[in-house]
């Protein structure tokens, strides 16, 4: 018997997310972000959220929409340079921010998914990143002890998925999505195309359905480009 994890849409998928929740958001910049669930959370109006994401999006799209609604209490990210409202809230003290190296962000997602409580890393030793953290020494090198993330929800965006929650990501939109999909207590996936079990090539599945609790098919994705850069035509 197959397991059907399909919900009606974004609003249904995030219906039990309450004030004060800790949420992981997949994506890198504006690439592969769960657009529909972010919009649903803005409409829902939940607040005091802790957000774990590679960055804060831009002012008028993605997580930036939640910032404008003052829904975030804390932002955990590795890069935040494209969002003026984020900068304003940080400098005014309205938003708590934890900046961590990008590789450490990925690793803390990974070990959460694997059930490993902490990991030693080289990145950040001797910097502000190390403040308040345990340090161990091995073979003459110092390592920071980084804790696994403890997220109530992980919200990801995939190219294709089936009703059992198996996911396939496309090209660079894969980014943080598979790592975060493993790491949330409840994982929500929005997909561009939802198919029946057996229609996905098993060799192409990036996230097995065992990690996914809810899935739905979105439509009319904007897929914005954060910084559009093109080469000049060579004569």
From TrEMBL:
Keywords attached to this entry: Transferase
GO MF annotation list: transferase activity
SUPFAM superfamilies hit by this protein: NagB/RpiA/CoA transferase-like
Coiled-coil blocks: none
Family matches, as Pfam families: CoA_trans
Family under the similarity heading: Belongs to the 3-oxoacid CoA-transferase subunit A family.
NCBIfam families: pcaI_scoA_fam
PANTHER family to which the protein is assigned, alphabetical: ACETATE COA-TRANSFERASE SUBUNIT ALPHA (PTHR13707:SF60), KETOACID-COENZYME A TRANSFERASE (PTHR13707)
Protein name: CoA transferase subunit A
Organism expressing this protein natively: Rurimicrobium arvi
């Amino acid at each position: 018997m197959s397991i059907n994890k399909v919900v009606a849409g974004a609003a249904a998928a995030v219906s039990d997310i309450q004030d004060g929740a800790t949420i992981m958001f997949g994506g890198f910049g504006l690439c592969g972000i769960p657009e529909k669930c972010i919009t649903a959370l803005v409409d829902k109006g939940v607040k005091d959220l802790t957000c774990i994401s590679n960055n804060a999006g831009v002012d008028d799209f993605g997580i930036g929409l939640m910032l404008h609604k003052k829904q975030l209490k804390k932002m955990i990210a590795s890069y935040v340079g494209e969002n003026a409202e984020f900068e304003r809230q940080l400098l005014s003290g309205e938003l708590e921010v934890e900046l961590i190296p990008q590789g450490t962000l990925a690793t803390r997602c990974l070990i959460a998914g694997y059930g490993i409580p902490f990991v030693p890393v080289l990145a950040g030793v001797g910097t502000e990143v190390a403040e308040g953290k345990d340090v161990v020494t091995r073979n003459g090198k110092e390592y920071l002890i980084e804790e696994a993330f403890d997220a109530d929800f992980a919200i990801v965006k995939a190219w294709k998925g089936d009703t059992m929650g198996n996911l396939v990501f496309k090209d660079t939109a894969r980014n943080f999505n598979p790592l975060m999909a493993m790491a949330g207590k409840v994982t929500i996936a929005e997909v561009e195309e939802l198919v029946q079990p057996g229609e996905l090539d098993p060799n192409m599945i990036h996230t097995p359905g065992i990690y996914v609790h809810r899935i739905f098919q979105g439509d009319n994705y904007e897929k914005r480009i954060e910084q559009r850069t093109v080469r000049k035509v060579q004569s």
